[in-house]
Amino acid sequence: MTITVQNFVEGNWSSSASEMRPIASAVTGAIIAENGSSGLDFGAMAEFARLVGGPALRKLTFHDRARMLKVLALKIMEQKEALYELSFATGATRADSWIDIEGGAGTFFAYASKGKKELPDDTVLIDGDMEPLSKKGSFIGQHVYTSLQGVSVQINAFNFPIWGMMEKMAPCLLAGVPVIVKPASSTSYLAQAAFRIMVEADIMPAGAVQFVGGSVGDLLDHMTCQDVVAFTGSASTAIKLQNHPLIAEESVRFSAERDSLNASILGADAEPDSEEFDLFVKEVAREMTVKAGQKCTAIRRALVPQDRIEAVQEALSARLAKTTIGDPRDEKVRMGALASLDQLADVRQKVNELSASAQVVFGNPYDVELIGDDLENGAFISPILMRCDDPSSSSNVHDIEAFGPVATLLPYKDMDDAVALANAGKGSLALSCFTYDNQSARDFVVGAGAFHGRIVLINRDCAAESTGHGSPLPVMVHGGPGRAGGGEELGGIRGVKHYMQRTALQGSPSQIASIVGQYLPGAQTTPADEHPFRKKMSELEVGYTLKTAERTVTLEDIEHFANFTGDTFYAHMDEEAAAKSPIFGGRVAHGYLILSFAAGLFVEPDPGPVLANFGLEGLRFVTPLKPDDSMKVALTVKTKKLRTPEMGEVRWAVSVTNQNDELVATYDLLTMNEA
User: Fold this and answer.
1) pLDDT tens sequence across 504-537
2) How far apart are CA 596 and CA 592, in angstroms?
């Protein structure tokens, strides 16, 4: 049965395209699917996203959107076995598909968690601290992020049809921006299956997501300054998209994550009998064979000390020789097929081009031993290890990428040479270094950092828990400069901000505080008519403030605290030494004594809605408190965030002042309160 890849347009599935393109199984070559998008009104799709999906998403808070992502991830996990079954036709083994399927769901889970923990239960996001812009504090500045009011067109690559889709969708939907997904044709049937699961979860508002199974037609002709185009794939396609006249005219945000010639370096300290040597060989072999080398982060250039190239070649060839290739359904198989026959032809061509500068030392691009039946029309190839003995004068190895199980060994003379060779790739997504020498690691990062989006340092201490060279993680930036496209994805909340506009607000503290939903210094407060610790979180309003009575701090208090805690620092106990200090000018109270006395001034001792004090942040001691000075506290509700239906976090702005109303200390207190 042939799968028809449908389009999800303006809330409806459609397969009415008249020009359908056949899609072959990567394993058998048989036609298993068809796709197309002729007849679609791409302008109407973009408008539907902007006018229906965008407003609906923007009405939801970050927490609402985070909960939505979690539900979608759970639905993918519930139906993952159907996706695994379909994924075999892409040439991927189950281990390969784990990265794609459960890695995609994991990205949604990660963004759901970070959205709940790190973002407010609001639609406006504060960026940085308040900036005082006037002498008396009545005019301030505050940077904020708000959701773009356009659509994100996300054009994905063939190698990870689910993860590639979900890693773009997660931060975008969390930011409140609707999505039009365009998968690569050769694996679009798998992307559609995962997309359908999410749509049928029936938790996303209308217009939040749409899906184009075929080409995007004239969609980019309908872009505006509020839209985003995010692309993963080849440099040639990225350049074509980036040079679209409307993208330049409208300043459409464009992000490209392009294939790059990623490198891995064996440190000069890593002798053949070292753990780092073994880890390096294992990692290069893994990156060559996982997903049949079809990873934008895979190792393409393996840099080794020139006196160890023979040892590395021997060890790596021996490991690659153990790679079983064939039907990805067979549990004995460790490497499946390339995604298509077109991809196979391209890899063979690139190996031929590389052969002008490098020799094949393991494998044969035209001969491979297979496990399984009826595979003669599949897109199979063996791992190909090449070697170039003069990489400094051979540009091919730094310019040509065979997007498959192909890597080239390159010798280097010293660390400076290794850095120069790594950077000769003109920008990459991922770089790794295997060394146990901390200074070498630092020199390597300083020399190579500017050319690479991510650097993984692997040694015996972290190898057991390391995610390896080629694994983009939701919390870490994915992207790179130059050849890698100059774009940036993921990176935790950084990825969310790519779909938001940063705006500088200037105005009165009270007005800006009302906009951002957070108390800011100088904003109007509401005097407490009841102790705030007697109120549930839902009963507290931002700006609700308790002002305490004063307490005088005596010399006896200071000496008792010093003797009781053992903190006998000279500033508290030695008048003569303290008097010579340009900061203290005499004995002063301990900072932590001030904190303790502050708590004593504002704490309500009886059991109540405050369940726990779980920390303080941003503590600063501003003006020293001397013996016989008095202190008082202002305790203000700064923000509130629900953690569970039963309880939530209250952040309190605490300011301690002396008898002259000078600021002594300031910090944020965190409590867990009944909801």
Assistant:
1) 999 999 999 999 999 999 899 999 999 999 999 9
2) 6
Handedness of CA 11, 15, 21, 22 (dihedral sign): positive
| Contact yes or no for 69/111 (Cβ under 8 A) | yes
**Tokens of residue 286, six digits:** 């893994």
What are the residue ranges of helices labelled H in 119-215? 163-175, 188-200
pTM for this prediction = 0.91
Closest residue by Cα to residue 547 from 581, 618, 598: 598
Distance CA 535, CA 553 (A): 30
State pLDDT tens for residues 434-493. Answer: 999 999 999 999 999 999 999 999 999 999 999 999 889 999 999 999 999 998 999 999
Instruction: State whether residue 119 is helix, strand or coil.
Output: coil
| 546 residue type, one letter | L
Which CATH number is associated with domain 525-674? 3.10.129.10
Q: Which residues are catalytic?
A: 257, 296
Asked if 525 and 543 count as a contact pair (C-beta separation under 8 A), the reply is: yes
Give the position of tokens 């982060």: 297
The Cα–Cα gap between 271 and 277 comes to 6
pLDDT per residue as tens digits for the range 46-85: 999 999 999 999 999 999 999 999 999 999 999 999 999 9
Sign of the CA dihedral with 438 first, then 442, 447, and 452 last: positive
Whole-angstrom distance, CA of residue 184 vs CA of residue 302: 29
Domain range summary for the chain, segments of one domain joined by +: 40-123+144-259+494-500, 262-475, 525-674
Instruction: Tally helices (H) and strands (E) across the chain.
Output: 21, 29
Q: What is the pLDDT of residue 47?
A: 96
CATH of domain 40-123+144-259+494-500: 3.40.605.10
In the predicted structure, residue 131 carries a pLDDT above the cut 90: yes
CATH architecture for residues 262-475: 3-Layer(aba) Sandwich (3.40)
pLDDT at 17 over 70: no
